[in-house]
Specification:
The protein folds into four domains: about 45 residues, Arc Repressor Mutant, subunit A; about 60 residues, Arc Repressor Mutant, subunit A (Orthogonal Bundle); about 45 residues; about 45 residues, Arc Repressor Mutant, subunit A, CATH 1.10.10. Helices cover about 60% and strands about 10% of the residues. It is built from ten helices and three strands. It has a three-stranded antiparallel beta sheet. A hairpin with a 6-residue loop joins β1 and β2. The protein is elongated, with a radius of gyration of 26 Å.
C-alpha cells in the first residue's frame, strides 16, 4: 500500500493522520514520522506498518506516563495499571516501565517514603493502615517495613493517635465528655488504630477533660 497523504491532526498538533491508497489508515506521533522517514508516495508493507504502530504506542505510552508522574509520584503498579487502562498494549507498557525504572523516574522505595511522610504530616494514619495502603499500591513488604520503621523511629502509633485525639477535641469543644469520647473512638478506629491504642488514648484523663 502507498502513502497518499500525511495530514496534521487538528485536535493534536503533535500527531498526523496517515492515508494509504486514499483512505485513512492510522494516526501517529511526529516522532514516528521522522524516525521512519514517512512521506507521500512511500510504499508501506504490512510488517513495516506494524513496526511503526508499535513504536508509536511506545512513544505515546511514555508521554502519558510522564504526564501522570508530573501530577504526583506513583508506584510501579499504579503506573502500569493506569497505562493499561488507557488502552496501551502490554508490551508498550512493559517497555515504558522498564525505561522509567532505569532512569529512576519510578522508585517504589522513594514513593513509599514520600507517601508515609505526607500522610503523617497531612492525614495521619496508623502504621498498620499505612501498610495496607502501600500494599494496595503494589509496594513490596520489605520496602514497606523499612519505610515504616524509619518513619516511626522516634514516634509510636500511640503518639500519633494522641495528636489526632487532641486535634479532634480542639475542633469539638462544645461536645459533652461522654459524647466526645464515643465519637473519638470511632474516629481513631477509622484511622486504623487498634482497639488497645484507641482505648488507651480515649481513656486518658486529658481527653474530654
Amino acid at each position: 500500500m502507498t502513502i497518499t497523504s500525511i495530514q496534521r491532526q487538528k485536535k493534536n498538533r503533535h500527531r498526523v493522520s496517515v492515508y494509504l491508497d486514499g483512505e485513512f489508515a492510522f494516526g501517529i506521533n511526529d516522532e514516528a514520522v521522522y524516525r521512519f522517514g514517512l512521506h507521500k508516495g512511500m510504499v508501506l508493507e504490512d510488517d513495516r506498518r506494524a513496526e511503526i504502530e508499535r513504536y508509536d504506542n511506545l512513544v505515546q505510552s511514555k508521554l502519558v506516563a510522564e504526564r501522570l508522574l508530573g501530577v504526583r509520584m506513583r508506584s510501579e503498579r499504579e503506573l502500569r495499571q493506569r497505562l493499561l487502562q488507557k488502552g496501551f498494549p502490554p508490551e508498550a507498557v512493559d517497555e515504558t516501565i522498564a525505561v522509567f525504572l532505569r532512569v529512576n523516574l519510578l522508585d517504589d522505595a522513594e514513593f513509599a517514603r514520600l507517601w508515609v511522610r505526607d500522610r503523617l504530616r497531612l492525614r495521619p494514619r496508623s502504621s498498620s493502615f499505612l501498610r495496607r495502603e502501600l500494599r494496595s499500591k503494589g509496594v513490596k513488604d520489605d520496602i514497606i517495613t523499612q519505610v515504616l520503621a524509619d518513619a516511626f523511629e522516634h514516634k509510636e502509633d500511640i503518639d500519633v493517635a494522641r495528636e489526632l485525639a487532641a486535634s479532634y477535641c480542639r475542633k469539638h469543644p462544645s461536645l459533652e465528655a461522654d459524647v466526645l469520647k464515643r465519637r473519638l473512638v470511632g474516629f481513631l478506629q477509622r484511622k486504623g488504630y487498634s482497639a488497645s491504642v484507641v482505648y488507651d488514648v480515649v481513656g486518658e484523663e486529658r481527653v474530654g477533660g
